[in-house]
Design goal:
alpha+beta, two-stranded antiparallel ribbon, eight-stranded antiparallel β-sheet, about 325 residues, homotrimer, 10 strands
């Protein structure tokens, strides 16, 4: 009788290779985002905490946290890309292309770069390259993710069959310009919280970041709503209580931000995430669990996040 | 020995017909309110999310959410009007009269427009018209609510007996000017998240907004304190644990904002609440409960909120 | 093989009398801090709530809450002073020296003013004078605290033995200039929420602030992370579950801010904390507990905070 007005999300057979989706809800990220982000994770990197510190080394002011930019852009993609997802399988090639400052407005678009139906014909894997833009149309972030999405109708023909070649790792020349040229002489290592510079770290070094953080339902829900991420599994105990885990699932990005904040203790001068080579959520996280972090995480059974990323440190 | 310094709140016999109360605690609503409000409810309306989107269609910038204006003004009325309330019975004739932008300062006053003692002489119904003002003294919101308030002393004479005639519904000509003239041609329906315009909706249409949101104690407490609402039933488990429900009661306005945010899925272009004809909290909500929303809510036993309101959509 | 990069915190034998520590992570306190602070505690003092109210009486705009300044500065001292603390024993001589406004950047330093090993040789008491600065290097807050800190090595020689003479109470002449000269004639007592002025209060008067506030884990964690306070006992249920109390311990400053917010009901015009003579956390607080406040707290077994402070009220 009436045309349906709600968005059921796209199913696997709704996607087309090369399709470009402009996502809804541009978002002005004011200084208050930074405040709430600190309250959610407790990060202490001086560049994102202090306008004078950031200005001294070359930023216009304290920038919006790199991962907060990621979460806001990711959130916009959810209603179009992963509302009917079974699992978020991985990330690759995440580059931070331009600084984002309080007052900037983020919007997002995604291109479908791969589609592969699963053998059971019930689901398929969707590969998307998502890009975040600022109010001037400049690209601020770009990343690939792949996600397993349900089909609406098992019998529907598969929309193509193409698995893109993904970068195993970014090369240094591919890293973006989210960090302006830094005046290292103006970088105050005491205020930053550690004397350890780029040359103090060595390939193969493992850092146990020591501290643990127990997550509450209210915390991850506040965060995930802040990112305007609408994935239902994070918010609805009534439905999830009857589901796979019997619990609300915590947004994987919440874990990434917790791990990043914990990493301060050992990587205090790694003030900018220059790129994320790849990431996988290896196990689900639930409220009441306590998150710990290592700077090189091994594939052991208790691992919930495996993130391979570039950070920028002053020499 | 010492004059009491604490505010016990007004009891039924303390009110007088025609009395005007100037409420305490003017509040500057900065952009950070908007951020925390998003984290609490997850609303995605583009006008309130993005400065450029709001400017393009005619706002000075992204305005403060209509319901956030309501909550801040409502909060100010609590210490004077409903600290000794047994129940908040209803709202009527809520009009949004002028836009509220980050940086504006809200204050509030209420006029007692009706008083009716109950037959048991223990309580009475107080009808108030509350008005919110900005820093220039301009009215930004006006609404009527009625509330059952305890008497301090059963034997006290009732302070008059007058039941005001309340509007069943606002007429279009009564709606306020909180929304400036809109340049519909500049309204980007893709960024707004839905192609459905005013003419796509029909009288009698029912929309199930699909998603559910489970509420945590920390969330409704943060919200209700943000609004500087001091009603004790929301915060004190020690006392409420011994009371009627054995639990903290969630501020009714928290439910309204959750329902509004959920309504985005189906009403994404209904970017402004032009007026609230009436509303009743039909059942209490407690932490752990999951809120769902329909755009036309029926009087069925699981209903916790029945809100009849006008929204503004582009044609 | 690799130099350790993580900060284990200082142990008792690491401190030296007269040592000055510059703490890490300068923090720009934007208007959003004020918003989240209100959501966490619900304070209603008009000066901190409203720019026009604050301006009318002589402030540049609504200042950052005094205790929020305290918490941010305190948070910076934790990684250097109390990461290996057994107990935070007390505060003295806390003075608020200059107003802090949104946009100011706070940093902190501490001087070791006393050291006293305990007889068991396992711990010692460290006395520090901590000072907060703004971006111009002006002192905004100063206080002494003493804390019992573990030794790394029982056999290590004690680093001196000096117990400083602490002020029992500040004298009026010692109070700082965080409050500008006030135009009392412009102070609107109705908007402030109470008619009671300085001369209405009497020595010996006790005020029961009536209201109670139940604390949730998510709330104190959000607050303590906002302050970038890294004390492990507040965040890690995995470890604390096996510890002394079996629970996460709530940051003592959270209790101070709750008590201050509750004190509005009886002390609405006490808009500025002019100084804190001394304070002790007499018992731990845990999530689920409900906090009540009196303006003069007696040493009775249910007391969790005993704070002796100066407030400023208009005559």
């Amino acid at each position: 009788m009436f045309a349906p007005k709600t968005n059921p999300g796209n199913f696997f057979e709704d996607f087309r290779l090369g399709q470009v989706i402009r996502h809804a809800t541009p978002r002005t990220v004011t200084a208050g985002f930074n405040v709430l982000y600190t309250a959610l994770y407790g990060a202490r990197f001086a560049v994102q905490s202090s306008d004078p510190f950031a200005k001294a080394i070359g930023y216009r002011r304290a920038p919006i946290d790199d991962l907060l930019v990621f979460h806001v852009v990711f959130g916009k993609t959810v209603p179009d890309v992963s509302l009917n997802a079974v699992a978020n399988l991985g990330y690759a090639g995440c580059r931070f292309l331009a600084p984002v400052y309080p007052g900037d407005t983020l919007s997002a678009a995604s291109e479908i770069i791969g589609l592969k139906e699963n053998a059971n014909r019930k689901t398929g894997i969707v590969y998307v390259r998502s890009t975040g833009f600022n109010q001037d149309g400049a690209r601020v972030i770009e990343y690939v993710r792949w996600v397993m999405v349900r089909k609406r109708d098992e019998a529907a023909p598969a929309p193509g069959d193409h698995v893109p070649r993904l970068l195993v790792a970014l090369e240094p020349g591919m890293l973006g310009d989210a960090c302006p040229p830094i005046d290292t002489a103006a970088y105050d290592f005491a205020l930053a919280g550690s004397p350890h510079r780029w040359e103090d770290y060595a390939v193969g070094e493992r850092i146990d970041h020591l501290d643990g953080m127990t997550v509450e339902e209210a915390e991850h829900q506040l965060a995930t709503r802040l990112y305007q991420n609408t994935a239902r599994v994070h918010f609805n105990q009534f439905t999830e209580g009857q589901g796979r885990f019997g619990r609300r699932l915590i947004y994987g990005g919440h874990v990434i931000s917790l791990a990043r904040a914990l990493s301060f203790n050992g990587l205090a001068n790694a003030f900018h995430i220059a790129g994320i080579n790849g990431g996988r959520h290896v196990a689900p996280l639930f409220a009441g669990n306590t998150v710990f972090a290592w700077s090189e995480v091994a594939y052991d059974p208790a691992v919930i996040l495996d993130l391979d990323y570039w950070v920028l440190l002053p020499r």
